[in-house]
Amino acid sequence: MGNRHILVFLAIGVSIVIIPVFAPSHPEYVGFDSPRKQIAQGIAPEEVICNEGLELIIKHNGSAACVRLDTAVNLEERGWGVMAPPCCKTMHQEQSQKIQEETSQSDGKTIEILGLEAPSYSPNTVTIKAGETLTFDNVDAILHTVTSGNRATGPDRNFNSDILSAGEKFTLTLDKQGTYQYYCRIHPNMVGTIIVS
User: Fold this and answer.
1) Closest by alpha carbon to 103, among 16, 44, 173, 55?
2) What's the predicted TM-score (pTM) here?
3) For residue 77, how many C-alpha atoms fall within 13 Å in the half-sphere facing its CB?
4) Same domain, 22 and 64
5) What pLDDT, on the 0 to 100 scale, is given for residue 31?
6) For residue 5, with 0-12 CB atoms within 10 Å meaning exposed, 13-18 middle and 19 or more buried, which class applies?
7) Cα separation of 103 and 75, whole Å?
8) 3-class DSSP state of 131
9) 57 and 64 in contact (C-beta within 8 Å)?
10) Beta strand segments in the chain, E
11) With contact defined as beta carbons under 8 Å apart, do 167 and 183 qualify?
12) What is the pLDDT along the chain (197 residues), one digit of tens a residue?
């Protein structure tokens, strides 16, 4: 798609000057730069700002896109990406700091999020006691989630982290006994199991 040409008329004194102005061919990027440009400027994909009426979705490769809500829902249902929760940098930093403080106060177990190669989570299967704290630490360089459920049936809503950047942690306490499967919504082949005794 090319750019649309808009002619702007300026009245300067008694002369009229016609200046061609190039408008973007994608009107959804009128107020803010496109996600690609924002990321090129150093903004993290999960902190990209979308224009009004558009939702941020994080694709499997960690890139961001701003799309209409219905498109975002369809992409997420098909497993092509994850809708990012609305947040801003300050809130994101405060949440990260709170999680780190909670982690330092607990004596629970830690699961490292390793990434796409097996095992994706280490340990891949962990056994804890009801009420014990479990911390997921994203030691990988790309974005991940920790979402209860599995790829085939989707999230079961027992727990769900926000999108975790490199170095971020997610703390979880499970009070009910049972077996909990979990996966990464961005990379659905990443799976693990928690057994609560």
Assistant:
1) 173
2) 0.50
3) 6
4) yes
5) 64
6) exposed
7) 33
8) coil
9) yes
10) 4-12, 15-23, 54-59, 64-68, 81-83, 109-113, 121-122, 125-128, 133-138, 147-150, 154-160, 169-173, 178-183, 191-196
11) no
12) 444 444 444 444 544 444 444 434 444 444 677 888 888 888 788 778 777 777 888 887 778 888 887 777 777 777 777 876 654 333 434 444 454 444 444 457 999 998 888 788 999 999 999 999 999 999 988 889 999 999 888 899 999 998 998 889 999 999 999 999 999 988 888 999 999 99
Do 37 and 102 lie in one domain? The reply is no
Domain end residue (candidates: 37, 54, 83): 83
As given in the structure block, the two tokens for residue 168 are: 């971020």
What tokens were used for 130? 């009801």
The rounded distance, in Å, linking the Cα atoms of 11 and 13 is: 6
Enumerate the β-bridge partners of residue 6.
21
Amino acid identity at 184 = C
* Predicted local distance difference test score (pLDDT) of residue 107: 58
**pLDDT confidence of residue 48:** 80
Same domain as 171, residue 102: yes
CATH of the domain at 95: 2.60.40.420
Number of domains in the chain: 2
Tell me the three-class secondary structure of 12-49, residue by residue. ECCEEEEEEEEECCCHHHCCCCCHHHHHHCCCCHHHCC
* CA proximity to 123, closest of 111, 135, 134, 136: 111
- Looking up tokens 């006994």 gives 177
